[in-house]
Specification:
alpha/beta; 265 residues; two-stranded antiparallel sheet; 2-enoyl-CoA Hydratase, Chain A, domain 1; eight-stranded mixed sheet
Length: 265
């Protein structure tokens, strides 16, 4: 792309920082339109950079955002390059795999290809303070994983199967996007642990080492500047309702009652 001598080239950089969650900074509702904007105006063969700093979160939003990135890349013929900053782990690495090439700092935290789920068992605690749990359901397993009831072996088995299904989906995604580039044994790569960027390079989880500033110049030239695309920061006044005690209680109730909230990348 040719630019007038007085205009510095701009490289689109989509910032993906934070937790993947429906009420967090990274979700399809907030990030989807930004993905569209990042690819808008990029010519075939051009490059979009992903600035990733995320330790993961929701598997649903990880897949939805990654799918949107791939869809726009295929439609425009643009190349995608992910640059992992401090952390590109779990769902953050899922996003990185949407790129054609992954770059990480030698000290970046990379990988954590696994799924975790859990909660609390509070039935003994409420018994000690004299609280009786009363819950009524239609459907034998509607109250599955209820933290106020004793744990059932069949619930543990159900949860483990669910985790394994999610893990299989994660592994298939990494295999498809890193085909021919994974060099470490799969048991080591997919065991859920994380590694530093240098080891991730040796394992084939990333393609090379670098940083965002260097990648901007590699794409656009020495005078290139990043065109950072990120969610608009809300004012303090608009965030105050979510900081109230009522909002905190709502979040706690969701975490206790919704088993989906206990499964995350």
């Amino acid at each position: 792309m040719q630019f007038p001598p007085w205009r510095k080239p701009r490289v689109p950089v989509l910032r993906l920082h934070g937790i993947l969650a429906s009420k967090g900074p990274l979700n399809i509702e907030a990030i989807g339109p930004l993905v569209d904007r990042a690819f808008r105006g990029v010519k075939r063969g051009g490059t979009v950079l992903l600035d990733i700093d995320s330790r993961g979160g929701s598997p649903v939003h990880s897949e939805l955002i990654a799918t949107r990135i791939r869809r726009r890349a295929d439609e425009t013929g643009a190349r995608v390059r992910a640059v992992i900053g401090e952390v590109g782990a779990s769902g953050g690495y899922w996003l990185a795999c949407a790129a054609d090439e992954i770059v990480a700092h030698p000290l970046s935290i990379v990988g954590s290809i696994g799924v975790i789920g859990g909660g609390f068992g509070l039935h003994d605690a409420i018994a000690r303070i004299g609280v009786e749990r009363r819950v009524y359901t239609a459907g034998r397993n509607k109250a599955r994983l209820d933290p106020f009831s004793p744990e059932r072996p069949e619930d543990v088995a159900f949860t483990k199967r669910l985790l394994e299904d999610l893990h299989a989906r994660f592994k298939d995604w990494v295999r498809s996007r890193r085909a021919g580039r994974l060099r470490a044994d799969e048991e080591e790569v997919f065991d859920g642990s994380w590694m530093l960027g240098e080891k991730a390079l040796a394992a084939g989880l990333v393609d090379r080492l670098g940083d965002l500033e260097a990648e901007v110049k590699a794409v656009g030239g020495d005078k290139a500047r990043p065109q950072v695309i990120r969610p608009r920061r809300r004012s303090l006044l608009s965030r105050l309702p979510r900081m109230t005690a009522e909002a905190a209680v709502d979040v706690l109730a969701e975490r206790l009652e919704d088993p989906r909230a206990r499964l995350r990348l």
